[in-house]
Write a structure and sequence with these properties.
This protein is an alpha+beta fold. It has a domain of about 240 residues: TolB, C-terminal domain (Neuraminidase, 6 Propeller), CATH 2.120.10. The chain is about 10% helix and about 25% strand. A four-stranded antiparallel sheet has the order 3-2-1-19, with no helix packed on it. It has a four-stranded antiparallel sheet with strand order 7-8-9-10, with no helix packed on it.
Length: about 400
């Protein structure tokens, strides 16, 4: 797509001027002949050439001073000194890093390399031969295919012809097979298009300025493109380099709220180690008092004077007489305190008195023993009573 665009579009910088006054700068589309004005200069300019590597146009004013333009026709601030050799130059083209111009029958080369020590100085000259044809060439352009300069030579009588000029030897020759152009006093603008054809403008032909396309393929085809008002001085240079196709930039995202400074994370407090609870001393279990074994009821000894009654089992079928009333339980005698021992006199007989010990004060254990004794005595009396009734009953039978 870019290659097709490059072949289809070819624009040239063109300077035009009347008999007097400065030049006007135009941008001309060679394929259609459309013209767009770029502005006016403060000098009268001619013999211009285009440097594609620099994307600049170099030309000469009436004083032989080099003038530099950008691709928009604006004059750049490049200092240059006037040169009497370069005055009245009529044709020009940039070959390599040199601006080659024609002054009469001479080709002069001006160094246009900005890095050179002889920048904007004349560094070479070549004499043209076949003078009648050479001095009528008012403009030319370099053919990248062979490095020769191609222009249009006009004659006092007859048609105009396309010629070549060798910048090294100065030889001028007609191009065979090229078509003849209409008669005219001057073809002041000649530019190579990207299609390999030569575009030449007759600026003083029948009161008009006419742009022609000349095919150099041997067909001899010449076609008229556009007709404009006639001008006195005319020159052109190109084709201009095709600007690179730049994709439109992506739309910038709508800026959101400016984020504030990111707060530093607050360090979490390191939990202090929880002290292990000191185990409370386990209280030793208070030993429960071992209950003293309850003594089994012991049959109290038979009191003296009470006859032992044998236990007679009850007769089956005989009525059981109610037990006789329990005899009164004799109370335990109160033991009197032991009197102090009396030493017997030697005349009295010795009487041994049984020593009676005082019962210690009752406690819970002694009280229980005493109760058991009492209940045991009651049980014994009941048994004795029952036996007596049984014997009586047996006798009554």
């Amino acid at each position: 797509m870019i290659e097709e665009l490059a072949l289809a579009v070819c624009s040239a910088i063109q300077v035009e001027a009347d008999h007097h006054g400065p030049s006007e700068v135009y941008l001309v589309d060679l394929s259609s002949g459309a013209v767009r004005g770029l502005g006016a200069l403060d000098v009268r300019l001619n013999a211009i050439g285009y440097s594609a590597p620099q994307d600049r146009v170099y030309g000469l004013d009436d004083d032989g001073r080099v003038v530099v333009l950008d691709r928009e026709g604006r004059r750049l601030d490049v200092p240059s000194r006037p040169s009497h050799l370069l005055r009245h130059a009529t044709a020009g083209a940039v070959v390599g890093e040199r601006l080659v111009v024609r002054v009469a029958n001479l080709l002069l080369s001006v160094d246009v390399d900005p890095t050179s020590a002889r920048y904007l100085e004349v560094v070479h000259r070549t004499w043209l031969w076949a003078v009648p044809e050479a001095i009528t060439v008012d403009d030319f352009d370099v053919n990248p295919a062979d490095g020769l300069l191609y222009g249009v030579a006009t004659f006092p009588h007859g048609h105009a012809s396309v010629v070549t000029l060798d910048p090294t030897t100065g030889e001028v020759r007609r191009v065979p097979g090229a078509g003849r152009l209409p008669k005219g006093e001057a073809y002041g603008a000649v530019v190579f298009g990207r299609d390999g054809a030569l575009y030449a403008t007759n600026n003083l032909g029948g009161g008009h300025s006419t742009l022609h396309r000349v095919a150099l393929d041997g067909s001899g085809a010449v076609s008229k493109i556009v007709v404009r008002p006639a001008v006195h001085t005319l020159d052109a240079a190109g084709c201009l380099s095709v600007p690179p196709v730049v994709d439109p930039p992506d739309p910038e995202p709508t800026p959101g709220p400016t984020p504030g400074p990111t707060p530093e994370p607050t360090p979490e407090p390191t939990p202090e180690p929880t002290p292990e609870p000191t185990p409370e001393p386990t209280p030793e279990p208070t030993p429960e008092p071992t209950p003293e074994p309850t003594p089994e009821p012991t049959t109290p000894p038979r009191p003296p004077g009470v006859p032992q009654v044998p236990v007679v089992p009850p007769v089956p079928g005989a009525p059981i007489a109610p037990p006789p009333p329990a005899p009164p339980v004799p109370e335990e005698p109160v033991v009197a305190p032991t009197p102090p021992a009396v030493t017997p006199s030697p005349t009295r007989a010795k009487i041994r008195v049984a020593e009676v010990r005082a019962e210690p004060s009752t406690s819970g254990v002694n009280r229980a023993v005493r109760d058991q004794r009492r209940w045991g005595l009651v049980a014994l009396l009941l048994i004795l009573g029952a036996g007596a009734l049984a014997r009586q009953h047996a006798r009554n039978r």
